[in-house]
């Protein structure tokens, strides 16, 4: 009996020793450095009506400086994972940040992050353009994909229309989008045309001409502003070649 007990104790000791080696190895093993090389492409949009130029900080560095209202940065390479964003009046210290938040940046992705609301209450909308390793539109020769984002401070739903015949004969191409929301991509023929952002009552609040210079690309239209001062930002969602 004693011999069997010693055998069991010896076996348990061996198991504990082996487990201890394994656990010790896990604890002492450094984080894989490859994580530092996992990145995404992030574009920042300043859609806060009447807001001053801003600096956009990612962690402890300025990623985009002096970004004006109704402007967007180029796509910037940002490390994936949890990042700390701050929105600061241009040239000011970070203690004057009007927005502070930890956000998750998905790896190998193109992302648009749009600041909107008011300078007293800045909020963030984040939307994915595509995975950077897949260009789903590259084979299109005469078409583009378009989506609509509604960031206007009006609480109103807006839709995108296209002029099909003069005078003022418009058709709906993107249905009504709720406030602080966005549509899926809609495919259009890539040609210069007149567009309008319209309300549910078919009131066209912004009319604009737009030329899709590059077929096969995706584009984002963003409704911004306050009542009486609405505008539509038009951004090209650059595909990876």
Tally of helical runs: 1
**What do we call the CATH homologous superfamily of the largest domain?**
Carboxypeptidase-like, regulatory domain
Number of strands: 18
Q: What global shape is seen?
A: globular
The fold-level CATH name of the largest domain is Immunoglobulin-like
Distance between the termini: 74 Å
Poorly predicted runs of 5 or more residues: 1-35
Mean pLDDT: 84
Return the domain count.
Answer: 2
- In percent, how much strand structure appears in the residues? over 45%
Largest sheet: 5 strands, mixed
Describe this entry's structure for a reader.
The protein has 241 residues and is mainly β. It has one helix and 18 strands. A hairpin with a 2-residue loop joins β2 and β3.
